[in-house]
Amino acid sequence: MRAAIWPPHLPTSKSVGVEPVFDIQVLPTLPEIEQIVLSLKKHRASGPDCVTADLLQVAPVAASRQLYPILFKSTLMVQEPVEFRGGNLICLAKRAGAALQCKDFRSILLASVPAKIQHRHLRSRLLPLLGQHGHPTQAGAKAGISVEPISLLAKSFQAAHHKRRLPWAITFYDLQAAFYRVVRETLVPSQQDDKAFRALLHRVGIPSAALEELAEQLRRVAALPDMGASPHLVSLIQDLFHATWFRMDFGDTLTYTSRGTRPGDPAADILFALSFAAFIRHTEMVLREQDLAAFPLPDASLHPWASSDSGSTVGFPAWADDFAHLQNALEFESLQRRVQLSTQIVQERATAIGMKLTYAPDKTAALLPPGHDWTQHGAATDDLDGSVYVPVLDRLTQESHSLAIIQAYKHLGSVLTSTGDPRPDLAHKKSKALGVVRSLGRKLFGNSAIPLDTRRLLLRSLAVSRFVHSSAALLLTAALHQRTWDQAYVQIWRALTPTTKGDKPAHGYAVLRLAKASAPPLALARARALLLQKLTQHGPSVLRTFLYEHWIACPQGAWLSQLQDDVKLIALYVPSVQDFLSTHEPVHDLLESLRVDPTWWPRQTRAADKAFQKALDDWAKKRQAPASELPLPLDEPSGPIHPDVSGLTSHDG
């Protein structure tokens, strides 16, 4: 009976597969694969297939030709090899002390290198979508935007409001295991039936109150199709998320995964960024509907360099999964309530998509203006430690959270204080740099058996460069702050000339000459110039607006006002700068030059550095002491221009 019925049925049966998709722009090309192979980082661990980047880079052309058919077919057929879908998972302690505890570990996936090449190709196709639909203040996956602009945006927002005596608040958020908790269906349509999909949402921990709403929303629209991704690209991401697995190191059991992005995968950050962009967009919409968005500052006449789109907002300045909400109010009495309601919206939205916020003074907390008793405006006091917090109720889970009100917070490598004092941030940056120096000082940097060029290069790479470039976002509002930074800068370079008890310390000029380093103010001026170049070329434009508005409100204590001192300093070494920048309004002229040529000012700082090195050589020749004898330090480390060398300023540590 069945044999008689089944064959005639086959010609009329319909395919149950998906519709074919094709987009030629998504397909990889041989030159692209070769460029990716050449850009792979060397000396990295291999995946289960034991193929390393070093092996492929021995013959990159031949390796690319061997890999290209596999990568091309997997893209064309929308079907990755099983080996590309997982790898060995190892756990590394974040700190040495955590190795003996079951916490503070970071999971690292050792995946196949050919799989990483395929996923880096997909990443390049997803980046334009993030540029079009991501918020301008969302960084981490975009090229050209470092952590300094995001940190500076929070500082300038605080300083601009503080100078105008307006209420402000910065709420910092910490997502627990953010990359692992991403619901993949927020990016691409679900390929599971309702029963399996609801079971997944239940395992994620989404409460029943939000289950129906989220399920309906995910069925209706996902982030990638909504952003205009081609069906072929959407299908590739669906396939990338399908049947992912990992195996614990030295284990045989395969673990199937159905949520999150793979740690260490080249596409992990862009996929999280796209999901996070949709989260920010929806949250901002709800805040605007409930009149909780930040009020704009009073209108000011903006320079064209500082202008931004009329619809641009502060948003949630973010670097990867570290983000903050900049809030203000018309009066201090309503500020705490606005912070409470805004945090509640963010908490409920995070719960609805399966993410979890961690509340603690160093995790999710609020930085509020000093000098106010917030318990008079609705804040509560902890009975155990007496700390002040804002109660936040998650109406989806009926859980109550405590949003701590803090006086300082470490944000993206910087320390923000409620008073705007830069000294804690200065001390933090100095401590991190000197920590590297102390651990490797005499063994490496001060070891005369190692060539000086090698020691100089390593010290610059491991300690000085990070210290200088991270300081570009500092607001040094007093001469004492600049002096403190100068001394820390020279102290780091002193690792090249270690001393024993009873030895005379090297003169600051001698240290800088030995290190072939810039003068401290020149180094800081060059770091600011490079940051200005990035702000001009890559934005975010809203940061340029806040920097300019702060400068208009406070001409002597703003970040842009530091450029006036930079111009005066550079003019000592490069007098031709005075032909282009006026003495009355050098900042306006400098901003105008950035619009014409963003690289002009960094070139002038580089020329000033060369002139300073020449002045150091002239100073050394005029010294009366023998070359082998280290001169005594000056009585006044930060004195006026050296009398013997025109244009040379003393910056001894």
TrEMBL record:
Spell out the residue ranges making up region: Disordered. 619-653
Q: What is this protein called?
A: Reverse transcriptase domain-containing protein
Organism of provenance: Symbiodinium microadriaticum
**PANTHER family, per the entry:** REVERSE TRANSCRIPTASE DOMAIN-CONTAINING PROTEIN, REVERSE TRANSCRIPTASE-LIKE PROTEIN WITH RNA-DIRECTED DNA POLYMERASE DOMAIN
Q: Which domain of life is it from?
A: Eukaryota
Instruction: Print the organism lineage.
Output: Eukaryota, Sar, Alveolata, Dinophyceae, Suessiales
